[in-house]
Amino acid sequence: MVYQATASAPVNIACIKYWGKRDTKLILPTNSSLSVTLSQDHLRSTTTSRADPSFSKDRLWLNGKEEEIVAPGRLATCIAELKKLRKELVEDKDASAPKLSTFPVHIASFNNFPTAAGLASSASGFAALVSSLAALYALPCSPSTLSLIARQGSGSACRSLFGGYVAWEQGVLDDGSDSLAVEVAPRSHWPEMHALICVVSDDKKGTSSTSGMQRTVQTSELLQHRIKHVVPKRMKEIEAAIKAKDFDAFAKVTMADSNQFHAVALDTEPPIFYMNDVSRSIIALIVEYNRVAIEKTGKRKAAYTYDAGPNAVIYTLQENVKEIVELIVKYFPQKDGFKDPFQLFAGGSVGEGRVVEGFNEAVAKKFEVGAVKGLIHTNVGDGPRVLGAEEALLGPDGLPKSLA
Amino acid sequence: MVYQATASAPVNIACIKYWGKRDTKLILPTNSSLSVTLSQDHLRSTTTSRADPSFSKDRLWLNGKEEEIVAPGRLATCIAELKKLRKELVEDKDASAPKLSTFPVHIASFNNFPTAAGLASSASGFAALVSSLAALYALPCSPSTLSLIARQGSGSACRSLFGGYVAWEQGVLDDGSDSLAVEVAPRSHWPEMHALICVVSDDKKGTSSTSGMQRTVQTSELLQHRIKHVVPKRMKEIEAAIKAKDFDAFAKVTMADSNQFHAVALDTEPPIFYMNDVSRSIIALIVEYNRVAIEKTGKRKAAYTYDAGPNAVIYTLQENVKEIVELIVKYFPQKDGFKDPFQLFAGGSVGEGRVVEGFNEAVAKKFEVGAVKGLIHTNVGDGPRVLGAEEALLGPDGLPKSLA
Fold first, then answer.
1. What is the count of structural domains for chain A?
2. Residue A299: which CATH number?
3. Which of A200, A201, A225, A306 to mutate to test binding with chain B, by most B CBs within 10 Å of its CB?
4. Cross-strand pairs, B12
5. Same domain for A323 and A241?
6. Is the domain of B57 the same as that of B173?
């Protein structure tokens, strides 16, 4: 009998940003956050877990490279928590259930997007890890319960336990048992939400978000105001915007919160910068694109947001993606052709790009090829998926197939 | 009889930043601010004013180009206020005093630094304007009283009415009569304070500070916290640091306030960016330079500060200027040689530059020639000077000499 399960999990990009921990071990945040889950058809982590009494110890391979599992590290914590749930919720209640909690596990995980893309892979990675072990252990747990464990691997991973629109409620309890992800709306509620990721070149290694956010907590004079007064109001505003499918309100709050996250990073000693001149030019383009849209229709058509790096994620409704791709390509010429998963340019290629009528082209200068080194077009997606045996990443010997 | 006076006034660079007006006509700020006056030996505005009944109207030439004086504009306001003081304080009290307040004036002003340098010339310009008219009118006014008028030309101009270390007290009265500059300490109290201005290339025209700060007042969720809670504390801290000549404390507050000013600009809708990748790399260099200094001595040796533009001003004590010039030149190679007004490199040239022992060179990449297009070395200076007739900018015909 082989005890094995494979699951995939999505990336999520926050609209209301998580920045600051009140407990660094349990990864309890200083404020609630909210994200859109992106489609696994384009960006995903896949993980296979196998429990076998013949294994000598727990082992994990990420993209074919073995990672050390050392207690009390994040990987070890997640695996231990899931084994504990297996024992309590399954084995203790059903004497006939195999004692998988006592078996060592082998875990292989793979991201279908390059780490070099600068997209946070820890969220999808820990969500896939938790989902595959939960499937292996047949845990009768809701995604919110699993999110409590994923959170301890990487804070934002808890939001990847759901598809659609997801809030991470900060919680108030010291043990973190109320700091979990909840679904605000499923993907099907507002499927027109699309995302264009602009992968921006970065000369230097930035500050890691783990160390950066703690420096902000310790030194920013503005962060506490953000936590206490701004975020609670914005969480309500964006939840209402999502429920009403009000893109204009969604965009306004999303951009304001991205700006404010980077503002408190800058208000840190020493200051933290994640955006560069390319990031800032993309903001200028979206601001001008929205100015034209507001002049014509009274409403915004796009929202930029930046995580702890220079990459832009531009949220927009499906109908606007084509003209945004053309806008970006005009200022950021691409070396490689645009991968066009939604067949926007079925009749041709993106070409030189262009701007919408009434656009002031002087708001940004044209950059050299490579300033934006790739464009990824995706949309709102579903939560973790349990996959069939044919998708397994571990071979018959319990070692990653990729190493075969 | 020719009624004419010439005065020069200095540039000042704020350590606690002015950002936001509570009254846009009177230029009353939302928070107090504090600056260091820089030496007129290197950067100054010079203005000659002449009153003559034969003139047809008030006229002003800036760097040889005539500017329109239109009420209720800033120039017209300042000139009218000074004429009013002439009448009230001189002519109404002494019947024999010539009625200069009834004569039109010709004013010629000249900045000895290029506008292209991106240094705010409005502060020194309005301070020189007010000083020359005050001299022409023989006004028995203190610099603080004159600062009330200069403030209405350009907010930060009020601080250029004093040398040394200058606070602009925001005031609380609606008529602005308590929103004035006061001397915190004269230049002679702490003459070791030097400044290195890094003139940074800028691709695009930024947001003007006049419109930018009002957008911040209207849209930033963080500005009110800064105004109410952060600045009052920092004003006390930096005044104490100046009085104690505690450079470490001075530097800590100066850098934090520069960061926070740019943070609230970023927290504006749409966001305002004044710093670019070059500005940010200079910050990284100073942070690393201070890290080494703190490791060796427990104290910071330099403080960066940025106004509403990409230029860096680095405050440091005299003894450290040479190694900071060498540091900047290493990462930002100069096309033209460093003008060395203090003879730091009397024995040779700056050359390729170098870093101090223990400096981690990987904190920034080396830029191309021209990223920093000039370095200006100056120090703390004195307040406005009344100059002799030989320095006059107006010719015998009452027109600018520069046009002859």
1. 2
2. 3.30.70.890
3. A225
4. B37
5. yes
6. yes
User: What's the domain range around A359?
Assistant: 193-379
- DSSP state at residue B157: G
Chain A nearest-CA distance from B121, in A, is 25
- B263 contacts A283? CB cut-off 8 A: no
Please spell the DSSP secondary structure of B361-380, one letter per residue.
Answer: GGGSPPPPTTSEEEEEEEEB
Rg (CA), chain A: 22
By three-state DSSP, how is residue B314 classified? strand
Q: Which of A220, A221, A272 to mutate to test the interface with B (most CBs of B within 10 A)?
A: A221
Both B144 and B216 in one domain: the answer is no
Say if residue B20 is in the same domain as residue B47.
yes
Chain B residues within an 8 Å CB radius of A271: 259, 283
Nearest to A365 among B204, B221, B255 (CB): B204
Please state, in angstroms and rounded to a whole number, the distance separating the CA atoms of residues A274 and A310.
5
The CATH number of the domain where A156 resides is what?
3.30.230.10
Say whether both B365 and B239 belong to one domain: yes
Lookup: tokens for A365: 């200068």
Are residues B84 and B199 located together in one domain of the fold? no
Q: Which of A225, A267, A280 sits opposite B259 (nearest CB)?
A: A267
The values of phi and psi at residue B184, to 5°, are -85, -40
Q: How many CB pairs under 8 A join A and B?
A: 82
pLDDT truncated to tens, each residue of chain A (404 aa)?
899 999 999 999 999 999 999 999 999 999 999 999 999 999 999 999 999 999 999 999 999 999 999 999 999 999 999 999 999 999 999 999 999 999 999 999 999 987 656 676 899 999 999 999 999 999 999 999 999 999 999 999 999 999 999 999 999 999 999 999 999 999 999 999 999 999 997 766 677 888 999 999 999 999 999 999 999 999 999 999 999 999 999 999 999 999 999 999 999 999 999 999 999 999 999 999 999 999 999 999 999 999 999 999 999 999 999 999 999 999 999 998 899 999 999 877 888 999 999 999 999 999 999 999 999 999 999 999 999 999 999 999 999 997 65
Residues A256 and A168 in one domain: no
> What is the complex's ipTM, to 2 decimals?
0.94
DSSP A187-220: GGGSTTEEEEEEEE--SS----HHHHHHHHHHH-
Residues A258 and A166 in one domain: no
